[in-house]
Amino acid sequence: MFSRHFKPFFRIHRQSWRAFNTHVRRFIAESGFSDRCSLTRVATLLPLVIIRSADCKKDDQEPKRPSRKRTMSKVMYEMSLEGKAQRYLKVLKESWDQLHRTPGLFAYQLQKTPQRRKIPGSHGFYTELNADRSLKRRGPQTIESLNPAFKPKNFNFNKVNPDEVLMTIDDCQGSPEVQMIINKSPLTQYHTLICPEVEKNHVQRITRDALAFCITFMRSIDDKNMRMGYNSPGALASVNHLHFHLLLLPQDLYIDKVPLEKLAGDSIYRLSRRAPTEAICVVFREKDTDDDVAEKVDLIYRLAMWMCQNNMPHNLFITQDRSSRGYGNVKVFVFARSKYCVSKDLADFNVGFCELAGFIPLPGEELYFYMKIFQVINNSSIVADKMENLTEQQVLHRIRCVTGSAPKDVYVEITNMVEGWTTEFPWDQILTI
């Protein structure tokens, strides 16, 4: 009878069978009986187990955000960044669109339908025309060291027009004060600078609190098209005043699809050895506790400090996992570089967090060159037949040139950190002037 009625069910619900079988065997062993009548009474619990298991399975198949189990009271949650992030994002988008329509506030207006192209190849790199950025943006600063001094006379975020400040987040318990400032020379819609503790004049080196804010924000919003990035000194940072980038990138990029290989622990990965580039990936899972999150944030921070100490420029790219299996997870990619970029060449193909992730904004002259279109200068034409297309091989070659062998050193170091072979740094705060 059991076989006829329940065997088909347990073929589908194998987990239910394993759980039921384990509990029954344990009950029989601990009770020390073999009476058939007693066993019959135990078997009457089977329908209840089946119904409960089916209900649990249904819940698991239909996750709804936010489904993360809170470890704080409702009042505390509503006062925290986790409880407020989605509302902040909504207000930020509305304010950004309004300011973008304000004449003279942005250096230029983004096109409603920008000219973009997916580069032919198997890895999914995108290029997009942004001719105004190279011509109208503020000149980038030269930051000559990974341990720079703050120079008040240079441009910094204390000097921005108050109208450029979208919001100041200063009412979240456990989070630093953060100003959300428009990027006057945006790459994409909603391009915003995340500037923590502006008045403390942090140089452009990651702090633990700033990193925790960014990761918590990304884990708490329901918009997988919003991404974050960070460029260290020597890795395309333009201003020596601590900031991250928040921007809209709705495309499935190279970094979204690249396979991962486990490197250390249960959350530290590297890009697959078959991938054409290299990076670390730290996965923050939907089910992570506050302690889990704090431990991973601390690991990334310590790695960043180690890279600074070893004169290794680096970039971060923070994104929600866009795969069906990674629902609710956030990935933090860390790109280490061997070459230090002292200053940007606005007419060159530079490599920052966007390019490493697979999104390549190009100034007008470059896109014209690579996409075989005409350009008229002083009544002279450059014939398209003399020009080349930007290829996937060219992009990958440029990325490999700047990263060099640095990722391999980072693989070793982060593995040592996870396994407890590396001591903590005695210095925790960034020198400010």
Write the layout of secondary structure elements.
Layout: H1 2-12, H2 14-31, H3 36-43, H4 46-61, H5 74-79, H6 81-100, E1 116-118, E2 126-129, H7 131-136, E3 165-169, E4 178-182, E5 192-196, H8 208-220, E6 226-231, E7 244-248, H9 254-257, E8 260-264, E9 268-271, E10 280-284, H10 290-309, E11 314-320, E12 330-336, H11 353-357, E13 359-362, H12 364-370, E14 376-377, E15 380-381, H13 392-403, H14 406-418
Parallel strand pairs: 2-13
Antiparallel strand pairs: 1-2, 3-4, 4-5, 5-7, 6-7, 6-11, 8-9, 9-10, 10-12, 11-12, 14-15
Helix pairs in contact: 1-2, 6-8, 8-10
What's the count of strands?
15
Average of per-residue pLDDT values: 81
What does the largest sheet look like? 10 strands, antiparallel
Instruction: Outline the low-pLDDT stretches.
Output: 53-63, 365-388, 423-433
Taking Cα atoms only, what radius of gyration do you get, to the nearest Å?
26 Å
Specify the structural class: alpha+beta
Helical segment count:
14
User: Strand percentage, roughly?
Assistant: 15-25%
Question: How helical, in percent, are the residues?
Answer: 25-40%
Name the overall outline.
Answer: globular
* Strands in their spatial order, largest beta sheet: 3-4-5-7-6-11-12-10-9-8
Give the H and E element order: HHHHHHEEHEEEHEEHEEEHEEHEHEEHH
Distance between the termini: 81 Å
